[in-house]
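To illustrate this point, what follows is a protein record of this kind.

___
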Amino acid sequence: MPLRIRAPSWAIAAGVFAGCGAGCGVGCGGGGDGGPAPAAPDAEVVPSGDATAPPDAAAPVDAVPDAAAGADTAAASDTAVVTPDGTAPGIDATPDTAEPRPDTGPSPVEPSVPTTRDALYTWLAAGRYKTFAHESTPHSSAGPHGAPVLVFVNEKLRASLAAGSGEHPQGAAAIKELHSGGAVDGWAVAVKAEASSAGGAGWYWFEIYGSKDPSDALEGRGLPGCTGCHSLGHDYIRTPYPLR
């Protein structure tokens, strides 16, 4: 911004302002030998430009927003760039209530225990029960099986034993490995096939030992030899819990 220069009155009186000459002696009343008359006292010398602004004033700041600029800003916000997922950049599109991601692996599903002779023998020989909870080591049988045994129980029976239920649920099962010479040589199985134990008739029984021929198995529901011995247990299960 161009500066405005005000000549002080004392400078004019001393004859030092431009055009005054040497000591005019007439009080600069006008005319004289010294050349053109000096400017009137306290006159302002204003260069070209804004003649109304005060001396040394900085250019005023326009505090009023430009309406056109505001309109442009609003228009820009209305046409904000969006990402392919339909959100503005930098915004997390995941809702706060998003469900957790499911496990990538399949959920373990406990196999059901067959209740027919050939299907059960094949299932046992394949070791399908090996994932069940079981005792830590083979031990002498509390019943008439004779061989060292190792008991496995499925989850339905394990949960029922842990809860101290009066009657085990349908589908509860116990598998006894019958050992000989340190190896498995047969199985004794009890499966609750019905909702009610019905005096042992609601249980399916199976036993085979020393043979790989399923037809040699003793099997069926409510077998007297099995129910008579197992009636001493908790709803026909004599295995103590917790498993030892």
